[in-house]
Amino acid sequence: MATMGQLWTNTGSSLATLMFIYTIFKQFFPQFGNHLEPYLHRLFSRFYPYIQITFHEYSGEHFKRSEAYLGIQSYLSKDSSARAKKLKANTTKGSKSLVLSMDDREEITDDFEGVRVWWQSKKEGTTRQSFSFYPAADEKRFYMLRFHRRDREVIIERYLEYVMREGKTIELKNRERKLYSNTPQQSHGNQTKWSHVTFEHPATFDTLAMEENKKEEIKSDLIKFSKSKDYYKKIGKAWKRGYLLFGPPGTGKSTMIAAMANFLEYDVYDLELTTVKDNTHLRRLLIETSAKSIIVIEDIDCSLNLTGQRKKKEEEEEDGDDKKAIEKKMMKNEGENKESKVTLSGLLNFIDGLWSACGGERIIVFTTNFVDKLDPALIRKGRMDKHIEMSYCCFEAFKVLAKNYLDVEESELFEEIKRLLEVEEIKMTPADVGENLLPKSEKEGAETCLKRLIEALKEEKEEAKRKVEEEAKEKKEEEEEKQRKKEKRAEVEADKEKKKKIEENGEEGRQV
Ligand SMILES: Nc1ncnc2c1ncn2[C@@H]1O[C@H](COP(=O)(O)OP(=O)(O)OP(=O)(O)O)[C@@H](O)[C@H]1O
Ligand SMILES: [Mg+2]
User: What's the whole-number average pLDDT of the chain?
Assistant: First the structure.
C-alpha cells in the first residue's frame, strides 16, 4: 500500500501534469487561459498541501556561491553520507577535507521537533548534447525543501535557522584555519593589512609541559567562554576574553597560544604593533578580524613605549638584568618603532572600546617577559581577564616532555631529576629541558638523553651558584666603593671645616 507521502507526491505530479497541459492550452487559446488561471491555482493548492522552498547555488551576487546553499550543503553532509545512496565528494575553498553531499536528484528526509521535511538536490539547465568533462556553465544547482503547509511556522521560524546554524558549525569545523599577520603594503601607502598562511602549529594541550591542574583550569575556562554567547549578552558584555601570559623566555607562551587555537579551532591574528601607523589604523585592523579568532600581541612590554611615565620614574630602581633585557628588545624594535603613533589609550580602546564588540567570540592574548613593567591599566582584570604565569620546568612538566620526546613514562633516572628540580630547585626552562631530551642521532636512546639532562641540570646549578657569588661580589665591591666615596666626602668636608676654622681664627687674631 502506498504511504501517505507517496500518495501526496502522486497527486502532486498529476497536478503538475495538469498544469503543463494547461500551459500548452494557454498558448493556443490565450483568451480562455486568463479566465481559468485563478481556478486552477486554487485547485492545485487544495490537493497539494506541500510547500517548497528552493535555495540556489548562485544567487547572482558577483558569481559568489550563496551562503545559504553552502550552509545547507554542510548541514546535509552530516546525514546524507549515511542516508543517500548516491553521493558526490567536493573540495570547498578553505576546507581541509572532502565534503560529501548527496548527488543530483537524490532525496533525503529530516525530522525536526516531530515534523518531517524532504530535501532534494536538483539540477536545472543545459540541453546541450555535446560531450564534455566539465559541467556546463549554464547548469544551475539548487536544494529544494518540501514540507507540509501545516508545519510552515516550525519550518520558517525555527528549522531554517537551525539548519543554517548547524551548517555553519560544521563548515567551521571543516575549514582550514589561518594564521594572519599584519604586513605593510607598498600599494596602500605603507599601511598594514592582514595577510595569511595556513595555521599548522602542532602544539596541543597534551604536548604542553605544565601542571595538569593548571592545564585543566585553562581548558575549562576556554570551553566556558566559547559556549557563553547568551551569557555575555545577558550581562551586557562584549563576547571576548583577555589572557595575559607572562614568564621568562622559553617557558611556552607562544606554544600555549598555538595550543589554545588548536583546542578551540580558532584562527590566529598575530598583531605586530610596531608596524601599525596610528590608532585609527589599529581600529581598522581590529574590524577586519573575524569571529572565532585569537588576536595576539607578543612581547607587549617592548612593542611600544606603553609603559609611559611609570618607566621613567622607576628607571633608577630597575635591577640590572631586567633593564638590560628590555633595552635590548627595545633596540631591536627601534627601527620599526619610529613610524608607529599607537598610544596606550589607542590600545586600550582596541581591547575594550566600542569597536571591540563587533564580531564577537574573540580572545586577545598579550605575552610579556616582564609583567611588572606594564601599565596596570593595560592588564587590569576585565581587560586581561586571566593572568597565566608560565614558569620554569617542574617535575610534572618534565614528565610530559619525557613522554612526548622519548616515549618514556617511567625510569630510574626520574628520581634524580625530581630531586634536582624539586629539592635543589634548579631553574631550567621547558625549552632547555626539551633541547636536552631531543635525541641528537639515530643511535641515542632515552637513557642517554635523560643523563644529558641530569648533567645539564647540574651545570645549571653550578652556573646559578657562580652567578650568585658574582652578584654578591659585585654588590660587596659596590658597597665598598660607596663606603670609600662616603669616607672621602667626609674627609673633604672635614678639611673644609678645618680651613674655615683656621681662617676664622686668623681673622680674630688680626682684629685683636
Ligand atoms: N611549556 C612547554 N611545553 C612544551 N614545549 C615547550 C614549553 N615551553 C617551551 N617549549 C618548547 O620551547 C620552544 C620555545 O617556546 P616558546 O616559543 O613557546 O617560548 P616563549 O615563552 O614564547 O618564549 P619568548 O618569551 O622568548 O617568546 C618551543 O618551540 C617549544 O618546543
Ligand atoms: Mg614567544
Answer: 81
User: Contact 211/388 with Cβ under 8 angstroms?
Assistant: no
Give the model confidence (pLDDT) of 119-133 as tens digits: 998 887 655 554 444
Ligand 1 center–CA 425 separation, angstroms = 20
Q: Which atom of ligand 1 is nearest to the CA of 256?
A: 18
Instruction: Report the distance separating Cα 142 and Cα 60, nearest Å.
Output: 13
3-state secondary structure of 360: coil
Cell numbers placing 36: 481559468
Give me the count of residues in the chain.
Answer: 512
Other CB atoms within 10 A of residue 364 CB: 24
**Dihedral angle of Cα 409, 412, 418, 419, to the nearest 10 degrees:** 180
Angstrom distance (rounded) from CA 484 to CA 490: 10
Which overall architecture, per CATH, does domain 178-311+319-389 show? Answer: 3-Layer(aba) Sandwich (3.40)
Render pLDDT for 372-390 as a digit per residue (tens, 0 to 9).
888 888 888 878 899 999 9
Pairing of the two strands 140-148 and 178-184: unpaired
3-class DSSP string for 191-233: CEEEEEEECCCCCCCCCCCCCHHHHHHHHHHHHHHHCCHHHHH
- Residue 431, amino acid: A
Best substitution site from 255, 297, 370, 398 to test ligand 1's pocket, by max atoms within 8 Å of Cβ?
255
**pTM of the prediction?**
0.70
- Those residues whose beta carbon sits under 5 angstroms from the ion ligand 2 are 253-254
Q: Where are the domains of the chain?
A: 1-48, 52-125+138-175, 178-311+319-389, 395-481
Cα gap 371→320, rounded to integer Å = 16
